Amino acid sequence: GSDNNDEFFIGQMFYSERNETYGVAITDPIDTTLTTKGYLSDGCSHPITINGGPGNDYFDVLRNKFSVDLNGESGDDSFVVRSFVAAIADDGTLIDPELGNATIKGGDNDDYFEINQPTEEDEVAMSFDNPNYLVNSLVDVDGGTGTDRLTTVGTEFGDRYVIQDGKIFGGGLIIKYANIAYLDVASLEGDDELVVLSTNPDALVSLYGGLGSDTFIFTPQSVKPVISKNLRGHRGIIEHKIMSDDPTYAGLIVRGVQADVLDNDGDFGYVSVVDQTNGFHLMEEDGFGEFDFWIFPTRRPDATVTVNVVSPAARDKNGYVLLQCETCADRDFSDQAVILEFAKDDMAPKKVTVKHNPNVLKLNITDVNLLLKMLVDVDGGKTGDERFNRTEQTLLPVDIKLIPGKDNEDGAMAVTIDERPSGTFVAEGPLSLTSSYDVYLRPCSTDMRNAVQVTMVESVEGQIALSKTTLFGEDFDSDCKATVQVQAVEDEFAEGDHFVTIQHVVTNRSSNESIILADNSTLLASNLLVTIYDDDIGGVIIEETNGITATAELNDADKPLVADTSFYEDEYSIRLTRPPKNGTTVEIDIDSIRVATDLDTLFTPDGRDFTLRRQVYVNGENGTTLVFTPENWNDTVTVKVTAINDGIEEGVDLMNFASQPSYLGLLQGPVFISGADSPFAYPLTNPVMLPIEFALYPVEFLVPSDVTIDTTMYLVDEAKQVDTIILNNLNVRGTNASIGTLFAEEFVGMNMASAISIGEAGTFSGISYREVEVLIFNLGDGSDELTVEDTSEAVHVMNLAGEDDEVTVKSISGPLLVNGNGGSDNVLVSSDDATVELVDALLLFDGGSDGKDDKLVLDNSGDSSLDDVLNVTRLIVEMPSMEAPQLDLLDDTFPTPDSNVSNATIPTNSSDRASPVLPRDSYLISLRDATGGTFVLSLDDPLSDRTDIATDPLPFNATAGMIELALDELLIPDARSCGSNQTSACSAACKVWQLGDSGSFVVFFVGQRLNAGVSLSYDTSGLNSFGFTPEIFQNRTNDILGKNSDVAYTNVDFLTIRMGEQEVVSNIRGTSAVTHVITQEEDDKFFVGSDAYEINETAASIDVLYGMLDYIEQDLHLVAQGGRHRLLMSDRFSSISKGAGTAGYVELTRSSLEKLADNLGNIYFTAEGGNWFDGVNLWLRPFSV
Question: How far apart are CA 243 and CA 252, in angstroms?
Answer without folding.
Answer: 9
